[in-house]
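Have a think about this chain, C-alpha cells included, and walk me through the fold.
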Amino acid sequence: MSKIAKLFKGSSSSSSSSSSRSKHHRSRGGPSPQEAIHKLRETEEMLTKKQDYLEKRIEKELMIAKKNGTKNKRAALQALKRKKRLEQQLTQIDGTLSTIEFQREALENSHTNTEVLKNMGFAAKAMKQVHENMDVDKIDDLMQDITEQQDVAQEISEAISRPFGETFDEDELLAELAELEQEELEESMKSMGGLPSVPSSKLPTARPSQRATTKKRVEDDDDMRMLASWAT
C-alpha cells in the first residue's frame, strides 16, 4: 500500500472515530427541551403542509371521478380508489399531528415547571444567604430595646403634659361656683324689687247670713229672667 493511501486511510479512520465520539457524546447528553420543542414544531409544520397537499389531491381525484362517471367508468373507479388512499393518509396525519401536539405541550409544560423550580431554588438560596447574617436572639433583644424605649418616651410625654403647681379638689371648686351663682341670683332679685310680700293677717271671711242673702238674690234674678223669657 502506498503512503498516500495509508494517509487517506488514517485520516478517514480518525474522522470517523471523532464523529462517532461526538455522536456518542450527544446521545449521552440528550437534546435540550428547547431543541426538542423546535423539532416538534418543524414536524408539525411539515405535516400541516402535507395535509394541505393531500386535501388538494383528494379534491382533484373527486373531480376526475365526477368527470368520468358516465364516460369512462374505469377511470372514475381508479380516481375514487386514489381518493380513498389519500383520505387514509390524511386520517393518519391527523392522528400523528394530535400526538405530536400533545407531546409538545407536555414538553413545554415540563420545561416551564423546570424553569419555575430552578428560579424558586435560586430565590431560596438567596433568602438563606440573607438570613445567615441575621441572629434571632439579636432580633429579640432589638425588639425588646425598642419596646423599652417606647415606654420611656411615653413616660416623658406624660411628665411633660402634667400641669405644674398645686392641684385642687374639683368638687370643692364646683361647690364654690354654685355659691357664687346663688349670691348673684339673690342680688339680681333685690335689684328688681324683690318678691311681693305675703300678708301676715288672715283675710276676712263672709258670715253665714250674708252668704244666704247673696244666694237668695241670685235665685230671684234667675226667676225674673225666666218670666221675661215666657212673656216674650
User: Anything to note?
Assistant: DSSP finds six helices and no strands in the chain. Residues 1-19, 22-27 have pLDDT under 50 and may be disordered.
